[in-house]
Amino acid sequence: MLPQLAVSAKILCLLMVVICGAVPSMVRSVRLYSQCSHMYVNVFPNGTVMARSDGNDQPNLTISTRSFSLELLIHSPVQDMYLCFNRSRLVGRRLTRFQAEKQPNCLFKEEFTTDGYNRYHLVKNEDRYIGFNARGVQLRRNLKNLPKRLHKCTGFMKMAPEFDITKHNLVIAQHAGDSVPKWRPLRRLRPPPQNSIKTPCHGVRHNHGRHIKRRNCHGT
């Protein structure tokens, strides 16, 4: 009887763990390459978040899911900070994972644009996106309040840490160059040998008084 109770208690504990969502989430190391600044998102020791990194400070960021939901947490392993919005901007905050999961301003959702970029907005506010201008400074307004030309500044390329954008661009440029046919000078035709040149054949007309005789090309 006791072994059966022990097994039942273990099964009950496992069910409680699953129901409560205490399951390991998927964690992925990434670099977020800004579409406007052409640099990577980075968190500085004072909590400032900018897109001014050249990507050499590895590892950069991790993106993890919150249990089985589509809600994401963005974490900086270097500074041990989670990316969260305050009233005016995006900052890095020193929180435990449990604390970050309880903060609505630290939970994001990912969406994909038609031109192949990723965008991240708050779960509780679908108009509050992470974005940076051409200088790597944050966009502090909601998407609907931004000029349309700046909407692309909320787009990012999500790359693995070992991905090198400079090498990628060089490879793309090389392949593009190979696909374009190179111009080659026209080949000059050699003139035929002198003994093979034949003069045009014309009939010769001789007029001897009233008798007219035409010589053909065969000499007759």
TrEMBL record:
It comes from Pectinophora gossypiella. The keyword Ribosomal protein does not apply. InterPro entries: Fibroblast_GF_fam, IL1/FGF. Residues 183-210 are annotated as: Disordered. Pfam families: FGF. Keywords: Signal. This is Fibroblast growth factor. GO terms for molecular function: growth factor activity. Belongs to the heparin-binding growth factors family. The keyword Signal applies. PANTHER family: FIBROBLAST GROWTH FACTOR (PTHR11486).
